[in-house]
Amino acid sequence: MSRPIALSCGDPSGIGPEIAVAAWDRLRQDCSFVWLGDPRHLPSDTPYQVVTDVSDAVEISVTALPVLEIPFAAPADPGNPSPDNAVGVIKAIETGVQLVTSGQASALCTAPIHKKALIDGAGFAYPGHTEFLAALAGVDRVVMMLASEQLRVVPATIHIALSDVPKVLTPDLLRETISITANGLRRQFGIAHPRIAVAGLNPHAGEGGAMGQEEGDWITALVQALGQNDDLTVTGPHPADTLFHESARARYDAAVCMYHDQALIPIKTLDFDRGVNVTLGLPFIRTSPDHGTAFDIAGQGIANPTSLIEALKMAQRMAGSV
């Protein structure tokens, strides 16, 4: 019997519970998952069934949302995150990691969390969700990929000021980012010979030094050293303004970009609702929707589940490639 995907609940005061139910309703015939959380937090009319063995989820999911119950300290108040529930949110993530590393689940999909509530309620010591997962997995370095059917992008630097990017971006960081991306494309996307396009840091990729020195100083040499071999092709640095149109995208499997917006603007422009956050470098598959808790619309029944649906579908496809 196939293994289900583990879906951690995220912050119960956000849109996580309602989009989980919407995703189950849309996917129950084709993609089974088990929801990890407190069933009190689900919409009141949810047809769910508590399971103790996640292998039962595949059969149950046809008629009910399978739930692996994790008791939380407090009810959910849509739009108002409670530090009282921080321990439960963390336990749901830890349980998901345990399920996927033990082989009981095929992949982990995570609903959005609220960092401040976790800090206030449980002294959460990690910069974010991804770093916590890396710590649980015993991994030092992971990279974030945003993926859809049209484009895969990986930012080498993420949540830092633009003025700090040239200082943080080093040859070692870029080389490691490319390596983790290539390994992820092979292992989790089933691409035997990945083609990676590297964006330049400066406009027109520096234009021979007229618009910046980093490309000439080291980026071009690093890309050329990686170059093309039996199982990898790396090209660039490419001017970012010509890297994302349709014919350019056909020439690579993923683009490694130098900073956050350089990567996220094109994918959110091309496929805003269907972008999926994929963590590469973990010893298991992890996806998540590319949005936050959306407290402002939580509990109103208007949240769009498309990104979560795509995250679950992508996790299923990736599990099939392993």
Automatic annotation (TrEMBL):
Cofactor dependence: Zn(2+); Mg(2+); Co(2+)
Q: Which reaction does it catalyse?
A: 4-(phosphooxy)-L-threonine + NAD(+) = 3-amino-2-oxopropyl phosphate + CO2 + NADH
Any single Gene Ontology cellular-component annotation: cytoplasm
Q: What does this protein do?
A: Catalyzes the NAD(P)-dependent oxidation of 4-(phosphooxy)-L-threonine (HTP) into 2-amino-3-oxo-4-(phosphooxy)butyric acid which spontaneously decarboxylates to form 3-amino-2-oxopropyl phosphate (AHAP).
State the taxonomy lineage.
Answer: Bacteria, Pseudomonadati, Pseudomonadota, Alphaproteobacteria, Rhodobacterales
Where substrate binds, per the record, is at H129, T130, K268, N277, R286
Which family does this protein fall into?
Belongs to the PdxA family.
Which species is listed as the source?
A: Falsiruegeria litorea R37
Tell me the GO molecular function terms: 4-hydroxythreonine-4-phosphate dehydrogenase activity; cobalt ion binding; magnesium ion binding; NAD binding; zinc ion binding
Give the binding site residues for a divalent metal cation. H159, H204, H260
Q: Which GO terms describe its biological process?
A: pyridoxal phosphate biosynthetic process; pyridoxine biosynthetic process
**Pfam families to which the protein is assigned, alphabetical:** PdxA
State its Enzyme Commission number(s): 1.1.1.262
UniProt cross-references to PANTHER family, sorted A to Z: 4-HYDROXYTHREONINE-4-PHOSPHATE DEHYDROGENASE, D-THREONATE 4-PHOSPHATE DEHYDROGENASE
In which pathway does this enzyme or protein participate? Cofactor biosynthesis; pyridoxine 5'-phosphate biosynthesis; pyridoxine 5'-phosphate from D-erythrose 4-phosphate: step 4/5
Q: What is this protein called?
A: 4-hydroxythreonine-4-phosphate dehydrogenase
InterPro entries reported in the protein's UniProt record: PdxA, PdxA_fam
Q: Give the UniProt keywords, A-Z.
A: Cobalt, Cytoplasm, Magnesium, Metal-binding, NAD, NADP, Oxidoreductase, Pyridoxine biosynthesis, Zinc
